[in-house]
Amino acid sequence: MSTQQKVEVRKEPWRIDLFTKFPWLKRFVQLRSFQFLLVLPNLALFYIFLLTGIFGSPVGNRNMIIVFVWILWWFLLIAVMVPFVGRLWCIMCPLPFFGDWLQRLALIKVRPGKTRGLNNQLFGLKKRWPKKLTNIWLQNIGFLALATISVLLVTRPIVSTVVLGSMIVLASVMALIWQGRTFCLYVCPVSGFLGLYAMTSMVELRSKDPTVCLKCKTKGCRAGSESGWACPWLVYMGKLDRNNFCGLCMECVKSCPNDNISLNFRPFCSDTALKGYDEAWKAFIMLVLAMAYSVVLLGPWGFLKDWANISESGNWVGFAIYAFSLWFTCLVGFPCIYYLAIRVGRWLAARSIPRPPSPVPSIKELFIRYAYTLVPLGLLAWIAFSVPLLMVNGSYIISVLSDPMGRGWNLFGTADFPWTPFYPEWVTYIQIPLLLVGLYYAIRKGHEIAAQVWQDNDRAVRSLMPVGTLLTLVTIAFMKLFVG
Q1: Which end of the chain is more exposed for a tag (fewer CB within 10 A), N or C?
Q2: Which ranges of 178-301 would DSSP assign to H, the alpha helix?
Q3: 121 three-state secondary structure
């Protein structure tokens, strides 16, 4: 292989430590009350949402739980929090709150002690999660199941109340049985897609120097200390190299005895390593669901909306067809098309191998590694899909704020604010650039991954061409649906 053919794989060169640049931020997260101060208002809002879901109007656009959760919260989560601050929501999420309290029997203070190798006193059975389930397959299936009944979730307040309330109960029960935030790590459907798309985030929590962590005898970040709880996400900072399973709880910042934790600002899409089929399938599921929602809710095929909305149509045969098609496409159909692209790309790249031949990457390696290309494209597709949710339906937030239960209240004088789409004619002009940005990062990061795998520009390009073609066709399909 000539030197011209070799590819120099560039790593993103810059990181800005926000703790160093903004010392007040570090002092804030080191407060023992830091997470409690963020969770408490969300817990109060969540309680109000559940009440409105039970006792409020059954009409979705007049009920606070529907308007605030599935329009405002969803847009802020997918379009603002995830790309800019990763799993920030996990810091303030009310779902694991009671589970954390049951494990610690403390809201703010730390309980020193010894519990199964940890330096904190913890309560419950403290079992280890089964090794065979230490993946995100349960989250994949759970998210797909909720997506199948998503029309009910976003139109029927009582359904949202039952689902969200059940998740609080499940998280609390699991906290009494297993260590840490097992529910968040392996079960929570929201946590699954947050972990995947947090790889694109422009913020990361890392050790300043991993060698310091390796020499550390106490491993306070993982085991806890008198100043901080053992990491509820079971993370050891010395080996943390991705955002996927770090919930940004900041306990390690308090418990690290070496002051070796940094909160970095970094380039978009800095994490690019998927680790298994479970994560690859999460990327398939999320991209296909973004397309499916666009087809059902934005497409001209009214019968699909009727099939998906079983509570209104009562067409169980149609709903069965819709559900089967959704699951098949997510779990089998699209992965098969992607697999074919991988095989063709590998064949094209292998043909150009000079003599003597160099090793050819396995199909498994290429399948998992290239699946990352679906992450930036999927995230930007979800953002593009979510734009009209806020711009067209955002005015409901103003009216529902004064009448959260749809009972004729007028708390702030805005109950009669009319439904007013916000510049709907600009929606497509926002969606198309978003999709193009997603495609750009998908192909750019795909080429970086190909260069790492093949160590040769010609073979990297050949290998990526079929996947790049698939990504382009998917982007065009989204554009067609959004433009109409």
Answers
A1: C
A2: 182-186, 189-197, 210-215, 220-223, 251-255, 277-293
A3: coil
How many C-beta neighbours within 10 Å does residue 14 have? Answer: 8
CA distance 238 to 222: 10
Q: Which residues contact 236 (CB under 8 A, 6 or more apart)?
A: 213, 219, 221, 222
Identify residue 100 by its one-letter amino acid code: D
Q: Which helix (H) or strand (E) holds 205?
A: strand 203-207
Q: What is the pLDDT of residues 423-449, one digit of tens each?
A: 989 999 999 999 999 999 999 999 999
**For 130-139, what is the mean pLDDT?**
96
Q: Position 309: which residue type?
A: N
Distance CA 252, CA 91 (A): 13
Q: What is the dihedral of CA 394, 400, 401, 402, to 10 degrees?
A: 140
Q: Look up residue 44 and give its two tokens.
A: 């109060």
Cβ atoms 331, 292 nearer than 8 A: no
Backbone angles phi, psi at 293, to 5 degrees: -60, -40
- Residue 98: pLDDT band by 50, 70, 90 thresholds? very high
Per-residue tokens: 404: 């959260």
* Residue 398, SS3 per DSSP: helix
Burial 316-354, CB ≥16 within 10 A → b, else e:
eebbeebbeebbebbbeebbeebeebbebbbebbbeebe
List the single range of 264-273, 304-313, 453-462 with lowest mean pLDDT. 304-313
Q: Which helix (H) or strand (E) holds 338?
A: helix 334-351
Q: Are 110 and 34 in contact (CB under 8 A)?
A: no
Global pTM? 0.93
379 membership: H or E segment, kind and range: helix 374-393
Number of Cα atoms under 13 Å in the Cβ half of residue 252: 25
Spatial separation of the C-alpha atoms in residues 184 and 97, rounded to whole Å:
11
What are the structure tokens assigned to 135, written together? 């993946």
Q: CB under 8 Å to 63, separation ≥6 — which residues?
A: 52, 53, 56, 57, 157, 400, 404, 405, 406
CA 78, 83, 84, 87 torsion: positive or negative? Answer: positive
